[in-house]
Amino acid sequence: MNIRYFSLLLVFTLLLLVSSSASAVLDYKDKEMIDADTVIDDDLLIYGNTVDIRGTVLGDVTACGGSVRISGNVTGDVMACGGKVTISGIVGDDVRIGAGEVVIEGNVGDDVFVGAGSVVVSEGAYIGGDMFFGSGRMEARGEVAGNIEGGAGDVILAGPVGGNVDLEVGTIEVLSPARINGTLEYTSQKRVTFPPGTVIQDVVFTEKEPHDRSALSQAFSLFIGWFVRLFHLLIIALLVLVLLPDHVEAVARNIPKNPLLNIAMGFALVVIGFVGSLVFMVTVIGIPIGLIVLFLTIFTLYAARLYFGLWLGRRIYSQLGKESRPWMDMVLGVLVLSILTSLPWVGGLVYLVVTFMVIGVMFSTMRGAKA
Fold it and tell me: Where does the chain have alpha helices with state H?
């Protein structure tokens, strides 16, 4: 797999996280740890700063947090995103992860899809299907029963692989404990000699031009930054949805009404906010008020996408004819909007139009509520 597809892999991972969890339950949204003696006979949605699932889930798990650990038994799929995600228990089906750091040290029954800064399949871990990844660094020291396909800056293979290996890498190292039963194909700037007996079938080398690596590294760094921003935005979006559900719903319902008027009103309010904060801060007495106005203006510019995300996600699910829940609408909408606003040339315009429009809608909604 060409490493330039890393961003597509992670977007695919997050889309699967959203679309595969239509039956997830919210019973544990305020509880970050599932005790070892707990059995959940349903799908599970859980998020928080530190998530640890030690019990048994008879269904799928969708987890999001600063740190996520699956140390219990999950009979279905696991979809997770976070700063660090660790799979140390047993997962019966597929695992899909988007994270800064991923560690797999347990058993996974089927395929693994990973987009991360670093990926480690620890010694003693087992993956029953294929492994697809895009990362800065990947170490596979455990067993992968199927194929391995992906791209990374640095790759270490030190465990058994039941199928083929297809990689695009900056550097690759195959250690003597490795045993690749299929073909090893790799694209790199430099041909590498592997220990005898580690690759059972053919080794196919494709030379990569030297300038490719710097361009790919820069693209990878840009994408990691984009993903971190998206992750933070999703966390804030879910918190806002939990804390202010009625307000968010009211604003989202009014987004289609008078879009041009709301864009103009939103632009005017932003100008007033920045100018007003400067006016207040001219005097010593008004500095606290000016700082508060400035903070509220900046936060509104940042958070406006959340409200639009709820409306956009709901429209997408409606067009697809699928049932959804508010958190699903919010996650999908924010994800799609983040992709749109990242596009060259048009992304900035999309961001400004959406932001000004939502700020205008927020003002109109508040004024209507007071009336």
Answer: 6-19, 210-243, 245-254, 259-281, 287-320, 326-341, 346-370
